[in-house]
Amino acid sequence: MDAELKLKCNSCGNRFRVMTMKYDKTGKNLICEDCYARQNPQTARPAPTVKPAEQKEVDKWYCKKCGYKFSRKKGAVVSRCPYCNNAMVAKQEDLHAASLVDQSSDGRFDF
Ligand SMILES: [Zn+2]
Ligand SMILES: [Zn+2]
After folding, report:
1. How many whole angstroms separate alpha carbon 51 and alpha carbon 65?
2. Based on the number of CB atoms within 10 Å of its own CB, is 92 exposed (0-12), middle (13-18) or buried (19 or more)?
3. How does DSSP assign 51-76, residue by residue?
4. In whole angstroms, what is the distance from residue 6 CA to residue 8 CA?
5. Ligand lying closest to the C-alpha of residue 37
6. In a domain, 33, yes or no
7. What φ, ψ does residue 14 adopt, rounded to 5°?
8. In this predicted structure, what is the pLDDT of residue 31?
9. Domain count across the chain
């Protein structure tokens, strides 16, 4: 059935049609296009420069006292709420964690 001549790639061991294969650097071994590209990075297609989806490099914060939500540059240290100037500020990631804890332990934190 398979009349097409296939040869084993000397690098990855898979079989490929001989017409798609290339000689490796030594010129002795036939390897497949993929392995050839890997051995010759300069001939490989340049990786597409995909820009990651625009991410705002910010941390989201909230004030535990007044509930004011705000964002600051990622990594910035926020010690006070810009609204009420209270020091009980936390990142909103923590808010999720905190609310989970609250739900699972109703009534235990009696302020
Ligand atoms: Zn190969
Ligand atoms: Zn506040």
Report:
1. 39
2. middle
3. PPP----EEEEEETTT--EEEEETT-
4. 7
5. 1
6. yes
7. -80, 160
8. 95
9. 2
Is residue 32 a contact partner of residue 11, using CB atoms and an 8 Å limit?
Answer: yes
Q: Kindly report the CATH number assigned to the domain that includes residue 74.
A: 2.20.28
Cβ count within 10 A of residue 74 = 10
pLDDT in tens, the chain (111 residues): 556 789 999 999 999 998 899 999 889 999 999 999 888 877 556 667 776 666 678 899 999 999 999 999 998 989 999 999 999 999 987 555 555 555 554 555 555
- Domain extent, residue 18, equals 6-43
What is the per-residue pLDDT for 106?
53
Ligand 1 centre to CA of 63 (Å) is 58
| Per-residue pLDDT, 22 | 93
Distance 59 CA to ligand 2 centre (A): 16
The rounded Å distance from CA 51 to ligand 1 centre is 30
Whole-structure pTM value: 0.37
82 CA distance to ligand 2 middle (Å): 7
